[in-house]
Amino acid sequence: MSREHDAAAWFARMRGPDATGARSQFEAWYGDSENAAAYDHLVRSWEQAKFLANTPTGRARNLELARPGRQRKPIVFGMALAAAVCLCLVWAMPRVQQFLPLEHSPSREIASLGDSLRTVLLADGSRVTLDRASRLAVDFRADERRLRLIAGRARFDVAHDPVRPFMVDAGPGTVIAHGTVFDVSVAPGGVEIVLLQGAIEARERADGAGRVRRLSPGQKVLISGGALEMPVAASMRDMQWVTPMIAFDATPLDAAVARFNRIGGRRIVIEGQISPRMRVTGTFRRDDPAGFATTIAASFGLEVRREEPAMLVLVAQRSEKKS
User: Fold this and answer.
1) CA atoms of 130 and 287, how far apart (whole Å)
2) Which positions fall inside the FecR N-terminal domain (predicted)?
3) Separation CA 209–CA 172 (nearest Å)
4) Which of 38-42, 52-56, 138-142, 264-268 has the highest mean pLDDT?
5) What are the pLDDT digits (tens) for 77-96?
6) Are 153 and 183 in contact, with CB atoms under 8 Å apart?
7) Are residues 27 and 108 in the same domain?
8) What is the crossing angle of helices 289-300 and 253-263, to 10°?
9) 289 burial level (CB within 10 Å; 0-12, 13-18, 19+)
């Protein structure tokens, strides 16, 4: 069975009575990036087909003509015709979208469940990159584009729309933008907002009450304990998480390991006492914790012990006992 058939089967099942019971199995299947791409393509085609009927073009058509008349064609012919229409819609909607205004896009949730980042093109042309283990709810309406970052971190590359503001809720606060690029992350310490391009407005509370900060490119702001702090300069480290490499410059070994562990994948653990003089300098692939651990071990005279299924332990080499 092809990925497209699998995606169609999951699409139907996750909208049926057993959706809750099948959630964990679906998420395991969806964790494959190619499966996710096939499923998202189907969802986009479905959503686009639904709002087509609400456009001026759709409303101008007499849908009553589609009702069966007294002289009915054989059912096989009707099924074949319906299948052909569906195939035409799936092929045509990505092309029709550039000519039809987006009037409404239903709510949906997207997630990055695997060990790699995931980039999603939204219906308005905006692009979202989700970090590992991140979840985002999307609710586009006629007067606003509203999203909620439920967990993790995301980068928003916003398509300009003077009529519908682009708003991202995270924790207690909200970010408002029009055409810009910014990051939002949700962590136990609070919500962090980093601006890369354009201008954004960070609000302390989603209802508009409380303090408001306007950021310039290269600044970041934190919402901690429900309070919006003053913007400060962002570092290159704050902005480089979407790249495949991670760089360290005389970073203490324990801090470098902690940063790698925030990425996901195989966890690295330090066993025993490590000298504070052990500092890491260099660039490593974010998706290769084993390569990082092996390089660190060779640099500092450590050993790497692999503990399945997902742990790497850095330990000091045992010295030979003198007889």
Assistant:
1) 15
2) 6-43
3) 11
4) 138-142
5) 455 545 554 544 444 444 33
6) yes
7) no
8) 170
9) buried
Which residues make Cβ contacts (< 8 Å) with residue 239, sequence separation at least 6? 183, 194, 196
- State how many domains the chain has: 3
Say whether both 152 and 224 belong to one domain: yes
Identify whether residues 300 and 252 lie together within a single domain: yes
**Does residue 321 fall inside a structural domain?**
no
Are 86 and 115 part of one and the same domain? no
Binned at pLDDT 50, 70 and 90, residue 303 comes out as confident
166: CATH: 2.60.120.1440
pLDDT for the residue numbered 113: 74
Residues 228, 255, single domain; the answer is no
From the list 232, 240, 271, the residue with the least C-alpha distance to 254 is 271
Domain final residue, candidates 209, 236, 263: 236
Q: Look-up: residue for tokens 């979202």?
A: 128
297, part of any domain: yes
Report the distance separating Cα 321 and Cα 323, nearest Å: 6
Q: Which of 60, 79, 100 is the last residue of a domain?
A: 100
Instruction: Collect all residues with Cβ–Cβ distance below 8 Å to 8 and sequence separation of at least 6.
Output: 42
Q: 269 has which bridge partners?
A: 313
In a domain, 322, yes or no: no
Structure tokens at 298: 């060779």
Residue type, 244: P
239: pLDDT strictly greater than 90: no
State the chain's mean pLDDT as an integer: 76
- Together in a domain, 109 and 223: yes
Q: What is the mean pLDDT of residues 37-44?
A: 69
Q: Cα 221–225–228 angle (5° rounding)?
A: 30
Both 110 and 198 in one domain: the answer is: yes
* Dist. CA 272–CA 242, nearest whole Å: 32
C-alpha distances (whole Å) from 301 to each of 9, 234, 292 are 52, 34, 14
Domain around 290:
243-316
Average pLDDT (165-179) is: 92
pTM over 0.85: no
